[in-house]
User: Fold Phosphonate transport system substrate-binding protein from Inhella inkyongensis.
Amino acid sequence: MLRRLGLACLGLVGLSLLSEAQAQSSAPAPGLTLGVLNQRSPQLTASFWNPILVELGRRIGRPVELRMAKTAPETTAATVAGEYDLAYTNHLFTPERVRLGWRVFARLAGEPITGEFVVLQDSPIKSLSELAGQAVAFPSAEAFVGYAVPMEALRRAGVEVKPSFAGNQEGAMGQLRAKAVVAAGVNTKVMAAFAAREGLAYRVLWRSEPYLDIPLMAHPRVSAQTLAQLQSALLGLDQDEAGRAALAAAAAALKLDKPVRFVAATDAEFENVRQFHRQAAAKAP
Assistant:
């Protein structure tokens, strides 16, 4: 009798362990977070990214949620601190941040971006030298093509300006439109989209060499299997009706003239960004 009771208890324990294991295996995978570099207002950023992330989450079987702090430096600080699983940023290519181990896996398709100094169409300013002593808008001191690259051009030209930091790309463009500054340091693609959407006439005063568009990157804690799944799902969005609808909705939010799409990217493709930062670090006092 006692032997039968003991076997029954063992059987119940076995069933309990089996049920627990089955429950754990059937539990939904935890969601992922994507930290997005501040280029536009939170509302526009959400309108662009949320259709993409909802469809991406549906494909990989786990939610992917948008995250963005109040300003670009704050978002970058959170990214560096590892608060996000994924990041849409080109702020992780400095020598000290490369060591963090973030991995590039995709980027938006299309032409490269450049840094620009832009002025209003009717501005009398015709050269960089005329910016000396003037108020010039920038997204933030963290911005790459919107600050680091154009400021290096000013350094080489021996021109000092009064920086006005707006917090994001379109904030700097808004300062220019309001004539609070005489020029702005911008990302060429963000500037063109803003001008088309807002009906702003502007002129390019200076343009940098090209750099690949901002990449999507994964934190080291994201497994290789998850990263491969994410990349495959993201690159496949333009291959079926549901994915194309998400991409079209994202483009419509910014009033772009055609849908966006993603292509594979690697760390090696961003070597000129890392080289820029290495050279800048070597020149620093």
In short: The two ends are 85 Å apart (CA to CA). Residues 2-26 form the longest helix (25 residues). The first strand starts at residue 32 and ends at 36.
